[in-house]
Each structure stands twice: as structure tokens, then as C-alpha cells.
Amino acid sequence: MRLKYSIIICFICTIIYSQNKNFEPGKQWKDTDGVHINAHGGGILFVDGVYYWYGEHKTEGKSGNTSLVGFSCYSSKDLYNWKNEGIVLKAEENPNSEITKGCIMERPKVIFNKKMSKYILWFHLELKDQGYNAAKAAVAISDSPKGPFKFYKSYRPNKGVWPIGFKNENKIASADESKLKSWTPEWLTAVDNGMLVRRDFEKGQMSRDMTVYVDDNNKAYLIHSSEDNLTLHISELTDDYLDFTEKWTRMAPAGHNEAPAVFKKNGIYYMITSGCTGWDPNEARSFSANSVLGPWKSLGNPCVGEDAALTFHSQSTYIFPIQGKKEQFIFMADRWKPENPIDGSYIWLPIKFANEKPILKWAEKWNLNAFAEKL
Ligand code: GAL
To answer: What is d(CA 270, CA 321) in angstroms, rounded to the nearest whole number?
Structure first.
């Protein structure tokens, strides 16, 4: 009898002590089955007391960055301990499907549409064997945050529509602009003036790295790297979150921003992005605005301290509010491992503020009490 109780107590103690109580950026993050979490380029949605973390399911080896499996989902009540909920959008066997195995599906972001009572998953889609040329935004739908999601449609956004406030004189190409040498000041000015918007006007604008943001009035926006990753586009979504309203703006033209992540604090919108160096880390940027559609003001690199110039060897993916806390936000980033993508790790840090600017400071180990600590 005594032995039986000891075994039970031992079992309970193992459960209690094996629970995570901290975030350890860059380390292996084990799920509740003891396996490193596989949810890269991810995003978070909070539903009825549960956080859901959606991300790219990577595989081993060089092909591990193509989508051979799909998007995974993990759930947690405390943000430290995550249960694997499985694959919520599967890469399909059908070779004619746009999401056939071997395509590239990146940066899944799930939002809830109150009106339709549906979960809507937006992601970056590249068609199989076309590298990063397709540059599409794609959307899938589910009745539950745990999926399964059903692929709905892919887009080149804003086909045949000029951005808000686009000048008439910029709607017509200047005769010699196609001859301009890339990265010269003249070429950058031409990009700023909409050379690539004009190029993609008929076909629809490019959409690579992306995020989705839902405002307090339930209007949602796709924020996507466009114009060969030179300019971010902010495109308003229709009320069902499945299409575009044709209301869109350009942000930081020719500024070369990727990996956008947005949050709103005390009525001000903030965005953190990266530069464009593929899987290699670079210096993050931050911006603020009084409206999601802009204008956005540059606030510089939000990272401070050692390795601030490399975003602590990571690239932004999402920012989310902590439920039940006022204005506390977690910055999520990826430390990519292109040689074995499944080993990629997660850099989560608390967002602090100084002089109205978001600040990210490295922490080897931290928990939610860190928000109470001074910078
Ligand atoms: C990064 C981007 C990733 C992925 C990668 C491919 O810049 O943020 O999501 O697309 O490039 O090289």
C-alpha cells in the first residue's frame, strides 16, 4: 500500500517539477511530450483561457524549409507549457493543389472572425518548384482553433487598384526607368515613386513575409512585404477576413522591411520588422503610427545591449498581448537553422518601453514577472 502511495506522489512530483516556469530564449523548448516545439515563423491566438501557437512544421535536412507536412498548433494556459495539438493545415498529396507537398508555406497567423464565427488562417504561399516567385498571400478556414483548416484561396493582393493617395503622375512609368541600375539613388527614388507598384498593377501586388492585425473595431489588415521585399503593403481585409477591400497603403517605400509584427499600446500602433537577409539575422527596426494605415514614423532599432545589431541572432515573427495584463506584450522571433530547419529555436522577450519607444533586451531566462522589473 505504502509503495503504491509513494509511486503516486513521485508521479505527481515529476509532473510538477518537469513543468516549465520560465522562458529560455534560444534553448530547446520541449512540449508536454518532451519534444522540441516545431512551430516556426509562428503567431498566437488566445481563445477561452487558452493560447494557441501556430507555426511552420519544419523537417530535417536541407529540404526542411519546404512544406512537407504543414502548419502545427500547440496550446497552453500559462505560455510556458505547450501541448502539441497536431497539424492544423496539411500540405496536400494532390500535385494539382496549390499547397501540394514541397510548396513553401510560411508565417501562419490565425485570427477569429466574430461575424462568421470562423477561425481564419493567413499565410505566405510559394508554389512548388517556383522558388519565391509566386509571392502570394493565402487563406484557410476552420470552425475550431484546433483546426483542421481548409485551404480556401491564394491571392496577389490589390490587383488593378492603386494605393490610397497614390499620385496621378506616378501612375505612368517614366521612359527610362527600366534602364536604372538597382540600388542606385535614382533607382531607389523610382521604387519610392511606385515603379514596382506599376509593374505589378495588373497581376496584383507581391505578398511574402506577412502578419495579420485585427484592430479594436474588428477591421483586419494583412501587412505584407511587397515590391520585391522593398516596401511593406498594408491591405485592409473584407468583413469576413477572406478577401481585400481594395483599401491599401504603402509603408516605408524602398525601406526593405520583412518579418512585420504589430501591436497597439495606449492607442498607438507599433511595428517591429527586420531587414532582408534571408535566414541570416540582421538589425531589427521599429515604427509607430496613429493609424494602422499610417503614416508610420521610424523609431530605429528596438534592441539594446550585446548582439542588438543582429536582433540577438533572430528575426521577428509576432507580438501578442498577455491576457489579463494591461499593455504587456511578448515579442516572438525565430533563430533559424537553415542547415537543419527543425532545430530552429525561439526568442521570446518582454517588450519594455523607454521614451515612447519599444525596447528589447536580451534575457537568458525570464518569466512574466519581468514586466514589473525596471529596464
Ligand atoms: C526570410 C523570411 C523567411 C523566409 C526566408 C527565406 O527573410 O523572413 O520567412 O522566407 O527569408 O530565405
So the answer is: 13
CA–chain centroid gap for 89, Å, is 16
362 lines ligand 1 (CB under 6 A): no
CATH class of domain segment(s) 157-375: mainly beta
Categorise residue 131: left if φ over 0, alpha if ψ from -120 to 50, beta otherwise: left
Is 0.90 topped by the overall pTM? yes
Residues forming a β-bridge with 265: 268
Q: State which of 66, 133, 208 you would mutate to test the pocket of ligand 1, scoring each by most atoms of that ligand within 8 A of its C-beta.
A: 208
Q: Which helix (H) or strand (E) holds 311?
A: none
Per-residue pLDDT for the chain (375 aa), expressed as one digit of tens each? 565 666 655 555 555 557 999 999 999 999 999 999 999 999 999 999 999 999 999 999 988 899 999 999 999 999 999 999 999 999 999 999 999 999 999 999 999 999 999 999 999 999 999 999 999 999 999 999 999 999 999 999 999 999 999 999 999 988 788 899 999 999 999 999 999 999 999 999 999 999 999 999 999 999 999 999 999 999 999 999 999 999 999 999 999 999 999 999 999 999 999 999 999 999 999 999 999 999 999 999 999 999 999 999 999 999 999 999 999 999 999 999 999 999 999 999 999 999 999 999 999 999 999 998 888
Ligand 1 in reach of 258 Cβ (< 6 A): yes
Outline which parts of the chain fall under CATH 2.115.10.20: 30-155, 157-375
Architecture (CATH level 2) of domain 30-155: 5 Propeller (2.115)
Whether 280 lines ligand 1, by a CB cut-off of 6 Å, is no
